[in-house]
Amino acid sequence: MNNILSEKEYQHFIMDRLVQDNGYIVRKSTSYDRFFAMDRELLFRFLNDTQPDEMDALRKIYKTDLEDTIVGFINAEVTKARGSLLDVLKHGIEISNMKLELMYTKPATTFNRELLAKYEKNIFSVMEEVWASDKERVDLVIFLNGLAIMSFELKCNAAGQSYQDAIYQYRVDRDPKTRLFWFKAGCLVNFAMDLEQVYMTTKLAGNATFFLPFNMGNGEGVNAGAGNPTFKDKYSVSYMWEDILTKDTVLDLISKFIFIETKESKDELTGKTKKSENVIFPRYHQLDVIRKLLGDVRDNGTTQNYLIQHSAGSGKTNSIAWLAHRLTSLHDADNKIIFDNVVIITDRVVVDRQLQKAIMGMEHKAGLIRVMDDKCNSADLAIALNGNTKIIATTIQKFPYIVDSVAGLKNKHFAVIIDEAHSSTAGKDMAAVTKSLGAGEQEGIDMEDMITGEIRRNGKQANVSMFAFTATPKPTTIQLFGRLNTKGQREAFHIYSMKQAIEEGFILDVLQNYTTYDTFYQLNKEIEEDPRCKTADAKRQIARFVELHETNIAQRVEVIIEHFRTTVMPELGGMAKAMVITASRQGAVKYRQAFENYTKKKGYTDIKALVAFSGKVKLPDDETEYSEASMNGFPEDRLTKEFDKDEYQVLLVANKYQTGFDQPKLCAMYVLKKLKGVSAVQTLSRLNRICPPFEKKTFVLDFANTYEDIKAAFAPYYTTTLLSTSVTPTAIYDLEAQIDAYTVLDPDDIEKANELLYKKNISAKDKQKLTFYFKRAKNMIEKYDLIKQHEIVSAMRHFVRFYEFLLQASCFEDTDLHKKYNFITYLLAYINIKHPGGGYNLDGKIKATNFVQKKVEEHTTSNLVAQPVVKLPTAESFGLTEAKEERLSEIIAEINSRTGKAYNNDVAVKAMLQIRDILLKSDKLKTSARNNTVKDFEFSYFDDIDDALIEGLEQNQDFFSLLLSNEEIKRQVLGIFTEEIYKSLREA
């Protein structure tokens, strides 16, 4: 392995490999036609060589204009609205009733000699330093039969650059409108690559270009992380020229893998349907698993079963679509087709629709796939299995029937692909299945148990191969489907680990902010006692932490609701949701009742809960029969749709929706039930979906399990360190001191940036200013050497991580620290512009962090923004008598001398108007006013006043905090207004 020391050397090294090992030809960049992104000479060499008769016939028609006509026609086809280069490569073009192919794929069998000869005639070429436009020079471009299909930006690590600089180049220096980079019409894929890692994108979009990893993963099995392995004698990315850029792989990718995905979204307001298109290029593990499976099946026919352990975020729908599509046309060494039918089993009809779309995207052929929905009965299924439909997609309930049917059809061979062997619905459907399994209590039976049970009972059928995809296989599944390794243990045929998915940013690590109630309680006590921490008044309620009483549901509900309202709800721009895991169906009912009672008592209208459990249930001493539908007020099958709406925030579940339930807005989970093994992993993993453009943060508050339990449950899938054991307010101040010591952040910039971030409308000019502040900080960091730079950035990341944990898990508050946190999160995003993923997009980021504004209004003093305008009911005021006015003045004067403030009567009157508006919402007080004298009314008035003060905090933090913290002053001020409030309520 020679040492590559510069970008230029790297370029030439790859070109040598392509020429010597892969039969490419090198072309001069002068042969490149930038207006059509092609090498015309090679295009016509290919056409004349492979289709001489057609070309002769066309030459007679078009004479000397033939070349321009063909080039113009190809260009028109690939640039039209629904057209694409991919389509033209796969299906050729038709001119004057003549069909011209633009590439030849490898025939499935060896029978057709002529096709094989044409396949050998595809021309692969490479050009370096290609001028795509006057301003853009691209390191390498690869052509197939003269058409540009891939571009490369190369970086050399030894020269102090990396793939991140290549990503930066694509985002900043490459114009998406240049013909070479034109979406769908230019290159099919663009690679950013150094000697260690590879990233790719199929669509350039300036700063917001999304880069996906195209790495092998580094490590073994479940411990594999992001990146690539290191080898003694070759570069980490050598698989690119040894495999991906070989002729067969490139043709395979174009003809069998890359496809255009069309997504339709309906605009709720206008009712119009919007279509968006994406070019899907497989990630490395997807390509790898499909090829390995096909290779193994080619050798072993239908003798084996396969377990594919792919984490959430692995792009499973596409992997299954590719596999199904390829299995339909797979031939063995004797050129015989291996499978007559492919059956896909999923537990969600929605997935079937996605699958159907994906498969149709790969090959538009009538009758290729049929979806058997719930309306289809077993007879329909039998007809389909006997018929010629290549791919049949159906739901899990039909599984026992399928097993029996395919066993009966001994003369046909079947591939059965099982998607995510866990069902999200225990209930009606599973009950039928349970009967067939002869199981007793239905709790905990899921798709995986059922499938393993069926196979155990029936043994492996000689004419059926099963392919089970699951993120978290149970031991029984591994026993049945796993392959023996050299150590004599069974393991999955292919693994894409959770660790890799997390490191690559496709899912979140749900244990990042996992804490048990004990820690939560201790932490908050510490903060209350720490003089540096000013706790937020609105969070005072969660600060009423109690050593929990075993049976006290009300206490837990209070902790859950108050934590959710103050800490979770503002996330995702106010759309965040939570799940409460109850221990039993009765528990779900009781918690829902307690939930309703508490929110009613507090007058909270912004938080609503749904419940989910199977069947009907009665409570002791209560004759009512409760069911999910009766409590929610709509049928069970509408739950996922309803819960997605903005009006519901919390879902209380009992053995339902703990697996397979996909809701990206779930940010928090409150666990009230012992969780073990796989079920713990699946349950907590409900939170792991990312929710772009938001930087989603997850939080788990566990009342029932210990850190040890949860660590042990996750160990087989990935290892992680739990934070909550080490976070204290002291730790966060230490980190702050460490960052301050580097003197890279200017306090003045932090102040100014925060002022801009809290403006109602941020203008383009403000964004420029913000970017200027971040740039200045970045320049300061870059004055240090590289190792120090890493240290600084890593200290900042730690700080953000710790601070977010504290914010979520406690009533901690420090305004200055919060400003610093805001600044640092944006700064990190700015520094990250070179990172893969979604890129630095200030608009998206500001949108995504709107929640901070709400959060901060709630818990910082208003010195952040020049006096926020308080919305006040101005139309009327209290008509106070002179005596009362005077008395009020005395009280206010006394308050001012005690507190050093400068309040006047107006402040108190305005505050009382706000309080009155809040109290007017209380039915309890209205009733009390109607049925009591002023004297008796006073009792309930003083009882309920605290809630009103807490609710009004946002509008009038200063004065209300004062009243909340001082019983005596509160009674004096509010006593003056008792009669007025009493009158208002009686009249209401």
Automatic annotation (TrEMBL):
This is Type I restriction endonuclease subunit R. One of its GO terms (molecular function) is DNA binding. One of its GO terms (biological process) is DNA restriction-modification system. Residues 278-496 form the Helicase ATP-binding domain. Keywords: Endonuclease, Hydrolase, Nuclease. The keyword Ubl conjugation does not apply. SMART domains: DEXDc. Pfam families: HSDR_N (PF04313), SWI2_SNF2 (PF18766), T1R_D3-like (PF22679).
